[in-house]
Amino acid sequence: MSLFDYSDSPVPVRSTLAEGHRRAFERIARPGMWWTGPERVAIAAESRAAFDCELCKERKQALSPFAVDGEHDRPTQEGLAPLPDAAVDAVHRLVTDPARLSGEWVETLTKDGELTVEQYVEMIGVTTQTLSIDTVHRGLGIPLESLPEPRDGEPSRRRPTQAAMEGAWVPMVRPDKLDPEDEDLYGGGRTGNVIRAMSLVPNEVRALTDLSGAQYLSMPQMMAWGEQFRSITRPQIELVAGRVSALNECFY
Amino acid sequence: MLRVSGEATQTEVDLEAITAGTDSSGKHSQVPHSDLLIALAEAVVAADEEELRPLRERAVAEMGEEQLVDAIAVAGNFMRMVRIADGTGIPLDKPMMQMSQDFRADLGVDQFGGASNTPELGIVAKATSGLTRAAFRRMAKP
User: Do the domain assignments include residue A218?
Assistant: First the structure.
């Protein structure tokens, strides 16, 4: 059976969604720009472990997310690549308490040498893709897909030459400052900060837009306000999107 | 985005439902199945199978299987997008600030932690918010 077969799903799952999920897992398994394939799969596994982590539940109830110390519940899957403690903690916080992250925390995390800011951004990409796909499975009442077998190879370690700090906690690349190999990144035009957020690791922008195209809308579809691309209308789509964002206390 | 989509499709939307959810007193929405969609979004975020199961059945009966899948897929997508925004501390884009300045405070969105990442609009930007909204409205027209 191939990845994301969905033949056992209680409701039919459109092929474009299954294909988007398949591409996302295939990307997660490959070497990234700053993490290896085995490390990326280990990040995905950590994203799942965070979901039921007792320490994270305790922290979520605490007045300050930094008031409670302890050990995270870790993945039970054997053979996963080891991750730095800072990365494990970051994945868990991102999954379970994202609204209380802070710029100061990111700065500390990435300045003590255990995690680079590039690794941090790529970690966000892998963690959130896994969570996003798992959310669809939980929502539809179907078992989570097995994590992919990691591929061998080294990360490319290419940092965009014009990435700069400009208001976010991580460097980003402006549309007019893209390197030639990244000219495709924003679809050739202006784009919102939520797309640029991952641009320190260009492949994570590509991953973001590809998965969004499968689960939500592609960038051109987003701008075609009056047209309908899904079985639900655009206001219905935005109602769900807005409510999910508000429940997560996301200002953006 | 909800407001612009409502204007583009000439559908009256209830912005209060975004923050008030199923408790919304507005109930002025012309968005079909809005109560069900809100309830589904809430159950997906809570990841509560006991809540989800009957909602899925209701969604299939009232909207259809394809519609259920698309609604859940959107919810999954935004579980990701909010974490990208919160994990990177991006500020809200200026046009979006201008477009939403008239209702953010009313809805309580300005109280969210991430609001501190976005600087206040300047006098000129505030004054031209109406023009930005009008430009978006024109752009969104079918």
Answer: no
Secondary structure (H, E, C), A166-225: CCCCCCECCHHHCCHHHCCCCCCCCCCHHHHCCCCCHHHHHHHHHHHHHHCCCHHHHHCC
Mean pLDDT for all residues in chain A: 95
Q: Is the sign of the CA dihedral A139, A143, A145, A146 positive or negative? A: positive
A2 in a domain, yes or no?
A: no
Q: Which of A132, A157, A182 represents a domain boundary (last residue)?
A: A157
- Confidence class of residue B109 from pLDDT cuts 50, 70 and 90? low
Residues A12, B110: C-beta atoms closer than 8 Å: no
Residue A239 CB burial class (10 angstroms; 0-12, 13-18, ≥19): buried
3-state class (DSSP) for residue B114: helix
Among residues A100, A134, A157, the one where a domain terminates is: A157
Measure the N-to-C terminal CA separation of chain A; round to a whole number of Å: 39
Whether the Cβ atoms of residue A21 and residue A133 lie closer than 8 Å to each other? yes
Contacts of A203 (CB under 8 A, 6+ apart): A27, A32, A33
Tally of structural domains, chain A: 2
Provide CB contacts within 8 A for B136, sequence distance 6+.
Answer: B4, B95, B99
B22 shares contact with chain A (CB less than 8 Å):
no
Residue-range definition of the domain harbouring residue A102: 15-157
**Are both A98 and A21 inside the same structural domain?**
yes
Q: Which residues in B lie closer than 8 A to residue A244 (C-beta atoms)?
A: 41, 44-45, 74-75, 78-79, 82
**A8 assigned to some structural domain:** no
Task: Tell me how far apart the alpha carbons of residues A215 and A195 are, in angstroms, rounded to a whole number.
Answer: 15
- State pLDDT tens for residues B117-129: 777 777 776 777 7
- Comparing CB atoms, the residue among B13, B64, B112 nearest residue A249 is B112
Give me the residues of B, 118-137, that contact A with CB < 8 A.
118-119
The string of pLDDT tens digits covering residues A180-228 is 999 999 987 788 899 999 999 999 999 999 999 999 999 999 888 888 9
Sign of torsion over alpha carbons A111, A117, A119, A120: positive
